[in-house]
Design brief:
Strand order of the largest sheet: 1-3-2
CATH architecture: 2-Layer Sandwich
Radius of gyration: 13 Å
Structural class: alpha+beta
Oligomer: single chain
Helix content: 10-25%
Distance between the termini: 13 Å
CATH topology: Heat Shock Protein 90
CATH superfamily: Histidine kinase-like ATPase, C-terminal domain
Shape: globular
CATH class: Alpha Beta
């Protein structure tokens, strides 16, 4: 709607089990052993930080498995850019 800014980002990486998606905003969560590789380094803080920032601005973060593999991330923030 006119009072909400929306940002959508789609990652076409490896498929994640749907039951894992709700845990991805918790610190240090990186998915299953299948998606943890040397070519995908990190400590699992990215989505936890995004979630904290979005909540601090009274927004919402939605994570949905993408039909193309990976994840569709939607950020909704009150107000317009």
């Amino acid at each position: 709607d006119g009072d909400t800014s929306v940002l959508r980002v789609e990652n076409t990486g490896r498929r994640l089990p749907p039951e894992l998606v709700p845990t991805l905003t918790e610190p240090f969560q990186r998915g299953t052993e299948r998606v943890r590789t040397e070519e995908h380094p990190g400590v699992g803080l990215g989505l936890a930080i995004v979630h904290s920032i979005v909540r601090a601005h009274d927004g919402a973060l939605d994570l949905v498995p993408s039909p193309n593999g990976g994840l569709l991330v939607t950020v909704r923030l009150p107000g317009t850019p």
